[in-house]
Amino acid sequence: MKVLIIEDEELAAKKLQKTLATVEPAAEVVGVMDSIRSSVNWLETNDSPDVILMDIELADGQSFEIFDRTAIKSTVIFTTSYDEYALKAFKVSSVDYLLKPIQKEDLRGALEKYRGMKSLYGGTVESRDPLNVEGLVKQLQEKLQPKEYRKRFLVKHAQKLVSIEVNLS
After folding, report:
1. Which CA distances in Å does 61 have to 8, 10, 41, 64?
2. CATH for 2-144?
3. 3-state DSSP helix/strand/coil % of the chain, to nearest 5
């Protein structure tokens, strides 16, 4: 498995490489890019890796710009400290969204998702059904919506029904 790491913090990139080597010893890190510009250049001049481990906040902007500048044919797993970009990450066909510090179990699970997607869809982002991605985004949006709870209940008291207001604050 060939892996490209896009991470602007050198220490975080080294830790991610070490975690990857522990979880997936056969993985080959083909490059470590630290900016949008270097990532786009690398992707346009090299064969697509199997997996890209991509941080979101880079020194020269957000990594989502990479998707606007070049075609990404690899499976993307986001590795970030920010949880507010999850919806956007799934809209660009990532298979997982890992929050730093990256835990071995989380990375292992993400790579298992990659293997499952590879066997199901033939291994490339391009071959995936875009409707399926939209379905995943919709499911994620539904799960992120705050739940509605009853604000009033009818309770039988003596011979009549009494409306009781619920105050959870």
Report:
1. 10, 17, 15, 9
2. 3.40.50.2300
3. 40, 25, 35
Helix and strand element counts for the chain (H, E): 6, 9
| Structure tokens, 6 | 């896009």
How far is Cα 86 from Cα 84, in angstroms, rounded to an integer?
6
CA angle 128, 107, 15 (to 5 degrees): 130
| Six token digits for residue 154 | 């009818």
Q: What is the pLDDT of residues 78-130, one digit of tens each?
A: 999 888 888 888 888 789 999 999 999 999 999 999 998 887 766 544 434 44
Cα separation, 141 vs 18, whole angstroms: 33
Sequence spans of domains, the chain: 2-144
C-alpha angle 25-31-34 in degrees, rounded to nearest 5? 125
Q: Cα Rg for the chain, rounded, in angstroms?
A: 21
